[in-house]
Amino acid sequence: MDQPKLERMLRLMKYLSANVNYTIPQLGRRLEMSPRTVYRYIDTFKSAGFAVTKLRGDVYKLVQMPSQTVDLDKLIYFSEEEAYLVNSLIDQLVPTNSLKSGLKEKLSAIYRSTSIADFVGERSNAAHVEALGKAAQDKLQAALRGYESGSSHTIRDRFVEPFGFTSDYADVWAFDLEDGRNKTFKISRIGSVEILESPWTREAEHHRSGMDVFRMTGEEPIHIVLRLSLMAKNLLEEEYPLSRRCTRKDGDSWILETDIYQLQGATRFISGLMGEIEILEGDALKAHLEEYGQKYFGK
Questions:
Q1: What's the pLDDT tens digit per position in 250-292?
Q2: What string of H, E and C letters represents the secondary structure of the chain?
């Protein structure tokens, strides 16, 4: 199987497993293929033993694996590069414990026979979530080994007291023992997780701040209203899925009305889509965007 075809099939698997329900024509447009080809790929999934159910009309979802399945290693072989791609998609699809009980079950034949097993293990997001969840349950401190910080631009160990996750399990809430603050740490930036023997010492200070759709945290909300083009709306929802509950259609455009807790997240998104987004409310955001533009584009 050629790489582009494999990539499209894996992307289709992602869409069929997502929280959003896509119709066959919508899937075809996103994957740049005909509806007939989408149906053919779905039939391939069924032939491989995947359970695909029809929700309504032309909306299909990938669900649990049936008890009797065929050996997938007879149908598809994963090179090392393809195995890495599959693992990346697995982390995006199911970055929680359900990866092991669900998706691993569906791909069990592949795990036994190809190099994908080398990539799905302690380095996966699911393993990090599992370890951090256990540390939180047992009220133990943990070391985030080789954490890549986007704010300080460093890679170093962080010692924390993990106590919860964001709703999509993309971040862990933890008390940073170094600077004495509650923070969110991105699961994907953790090199490895080590559960320490030391029990929590700062439990009384554990606190979840507000988190906005751009994954920024804080205490004081800032209300904004944006008008988005179709392209901006699609990019927003693909990059920040939680924004779906804050958007509504308004004629030929979409409205995002929400509270944010820091200006940086919204500013970075808007600055990459100039001409596709209009700020209807949010004077502080306008001022910050202007300052951002002068700093980085003024020259």
A1: 999 999 999 999 999 999 999 989 899 999 999 999 999 999 8
A2: CCHHHHHHHHHHHHHHHCCCCCEHHHHHHHHCCCHHHHHHHHHHHHHCCCCEEEEECCEEEECCCCCCCCCHHHCCCCCHHHHHHHHHHHHHHCCCCHHHHHHHHHCHHHHHHCHHHHCCCCCCHHHHHHHHHHHHHHCEEEEEEEEEECCCCEEEEEEEEEEEECCCCCEEEEEECCCCEEEEEEHHHCCEEEEEEEECCCHHHCCCCEECCCCCEECCCEEEEEEECHHHHHHHHHHCHHHHHHEEEECCEEEEEEEECCHHHHHHHHHCCCCCEEEEECHHHHHHHHHHHHHHHCC
Average pLDDT, the chain: 81
**Which tokens go with 271?**
């600055």
* Tokens 């699609």, residue located: 234
Is pLDDT above 60 for 95? no
Q: Angle 35-47/24-31 helices, nearest 10 degrees?
A: 100
Angle at CA of residue 85, ends 80 and 90, nearest 5°? 120
Percentage, residues of the chain above pLDDT 70: 77
255: left (phi over 0), alpha (psi -120 to 50) or beta: beta
Is the pLDDT reported for residue 27 higher than 60?
yes
With 80 as the cut, is the pLDDT of residue 236 above it?
A: yes
Q: What separation in angstroms does the CA of 36 have from each of 18, 21, 29, 133?
A: 21, 18, 12, 43
